[in-house]
Amino acid sequence: MKRILITGxxxxxxxxxxxxxxxxxxxxxxxxxxxxxxxxxxxxxxxNHNFELVRHDITSPYFVEVDEIYNLACPASPVHYQYNPxxxxxxxxxGAINVLGLAKRIKAKVLxxxxxxxxxxxxxxxxxxxxxxxxxxxxxxxxxxxxxxxAETLFMDYHRQNNVNIKIVRIFNTYGPRMNPDDGRVVxxxxxxxxxxxxxxxxxxxxxxxxxxxxxxxxxxxIRMMNADDNFIGPVNTGNPDEFTMLELAEKIIKLTGTKSExxxxxxxxxxxxxxxxxxxxxxxKLAWEPKIPLEEGLKKTIAYFAKTx
Length: 310
Ligand code: NAD
Ligand code: UDP
What we know:
The structure is a single chain. The chain is α/β, with parallel strands linked by helices. The chain has helices at 12-23, 78-81, 85-106, 142-162, 186-195, 215-227, 246-257, 281-287, 295-309; strands at 3-7, 27-32, 51-55, 68-71, 109-115, 166-171, 174-175, 200-203, 209-211, 213-214, 236-238, 243-245, 263-266. The strands form 4 sheets. The protein has a 7-stranded parallel beta sheet with strand order 3-2-1-4-5-6-11, with helices on both faces. Helix 4 links the parallel strand 5 and strand 6. It is globular and about 55 Å long. Nicotinamide-adenine-dinucleotide binds next to helix 1 and strand 5. The site of uridine-5'-diphosphate has 15 residues, from helix 5 and strand 8.
């Protein structure tokens, strides 16, 4: 049994991670400031005596004795991370410094939830970990992209300078139950719009692509990475290499929900990446992992969740 701290544990991904690690018999401390997460996501865990909930903002130091830390605290949807961009940078950068300082002091292993956004609007396709990216440092998405890039730098420097036991996972677009209906990301937006019979909003002409990973596949690889050999620190990509245009995604969701909603086109947000697909060779080799849940199956589970909760 391990004691594990999950920052951002009341968010979409964090809540699934709390649940899985508790099911495996660990003690879990879930830290969150509820900016985009909610107690609703984890209330089914409250009766478990191995679960603790802490309201805390990771931009301030936090002290606890744990074996492992998963650092997920950071808004992930463009709408939310652009709401207060200075705070987003602080959460990524000061949050990384605070969890790394803690890990150094208590000799804990610490995993960073990084992102495919470190590749920006990529000029190399699909994206391997060796690609340094094409990121605008002064745009509307920079608070998130550069914040996450700086967090990776800090993780590597704490590892080289202080021997902190680190892991970096670069997460590509992930979806599933417990996404916030107002989250603003494409899968939840389209499903909520379809279920409510509202127009389905495609930004731009809908030819931009993304590769969508179901949350259970992500949780599996995050835990495998945490348990991997100490010499394998990453960064390692995780995502589903099946690539779809936003038009294809909208059509799939229309078909699966049987909605009468119509597609409407809205302006493309600035610096919106044109294409994105992970090269997952490294995760296959080092972690014996590949995603198992195809888009249609994951969408059905996510639609069923929203149909029940909306
Ligand atoms: P989310 O917004 O649902 O979860 C983020 C959680 O962090 C929320 O519970 C929020 O309240 C909390 N949080 C935000 N700022 C905080 C702060 N200063 N102190 C404490 N808690 C804070 O998003 P998610 O999709 O669950 O993402 C989780 C992590 O995974 C994020 O770090 C995100 O960057 C990363 N990630 C997610 C995706 C994806 O597609 N979902 C892709 C790449 C990376
Ligand atoms: N998108 C869209 N309609 C929406 C929300 C998003 O067409 O209602 C597009 C968005 O412009 C982007 C893609 O879907 O091209 C994925 O957006 P999301 O915010 O989910 O993630 P990210 O851009 O960070 O990959």
